[in-house]
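Exam review. A common question shows you a sequence with its structure tokens and asks you to describe the fold in words. Practice with the pair below. Do the first one on your own.
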Amino acid sequence: MKPDLRAKILGVELGNPTILASGIMGVSGAACCYAAKNGAGAVIPKSIGPKEREGHANPVLVEFDKGFLNAVGLPNSGVDNSLGEIEFAMKNSGVPVIPSLFGGTKEEFGMVAEKLDTLRPQLIEVNLSCPNTQDDFGLAFALSEKDAGEVIKLVKSKVRAKVIAKLAPNVPDIKTIARAVEKAGADAITAVNTMPGMAIDAKTGNPLLHNKQGGISGPALRPIAVNCIYEIYKAVNIPIIGAGGVTHGEDAAEMIMAGAAAVEIGTGIYYRGIDVFRKVSGELEQLMAENGYATIKEMTGVSHR
């Protein structure tokens, strides 16, 4: 009997546990649908803020031997201009669509959440942790249990959707942040966003990113993400979505075994193509069959037993 790849997040069923990560591909409704067509079990469009934002100047992306450094800077057309694209994805992708939001202040998070909720999404991801806008917004909300909790509490008061808090890896103890957002009402947690990093041209001494510093994604981030998932799983009683460096089925299995109910894929599209979702699902299915796992739920958190 073939393993059952279906995953469930807060009552929302996914045909498989792979999710298009925010900021990759999902810049339009059509792009979200394209990811779904190529096997994504759910899609998260690019994070939406309160107003149009250009982002940082080029270069915003640098490849290194184990991943990427990016400092895109959250470019988006603002919530009012983005609702139509998200609605298109919700009506045409055939999979759950999870809007992602950010803000420069707690009040902006609440305002964007309220507008996104008019689309009646089942789930919303709150990007508390984007590390490459610090000069614009100050310290990321995900770095403070108080600030993270206050944002989640406010967003919860503005929406009917279930709320997913996306956390940052660069904190002394991610368990304390996870507990804080759970206490504030978060229904689930995404772990994790990119890790701050930097690359310098050794000949000129110049930083390679225009923004100088950026976020590490890809395979280099995966062991950090797996560790964060493992720690969070011990600390909270809400579902976890893993994110950071998933490129193959074994990568997804690692995160699920650490405690994730599903996994996001972003940089993996660069390494294996847009059908990486289908490839990862197929490899995961084979791994489950070979090791006696019948369901994703059965595999979730086995590393803690």
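Now try the second one, then compare your answer with the model answer below.
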Amino acid sequence: MRVLFAVFILISLAACTSLLSPIGAVEGVSAVGTGKTLSDHIVSYASGKDCSTVRSNNGRTYCLENEPNPQAKVWCYRTLGKPVCYDRPDPYDGNQRKMGENDHNLDTAP
């Protein structure tokens, strides 16, 4: 609400000048202060997402929630010392159980 009030005041102060300069100033101040322009705040509020033109100018997606979350391609196995990780499933075929797979601990009996 404060942002809308500030925009209204700036527009009313610009009575005979171009509307682009005060709106541009508000957009710039908002982008520097919050990392989002005024229009980004409006889009974020309307969509419920975290959207930013600054983020899209850096080569990322416009809205943070639309960015892909890549899964790591790592397979880790327990050894006597410390876990060992590979970029593919157990290349040495050591018949070891992958870390994080604890299905054998589940009680399946009723």
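Model answer, second protein: The longest helix spans residues 20-34. Residues 88 and 103 are 21 Å apart (CA to CA). Full marks require stating both points clearly.
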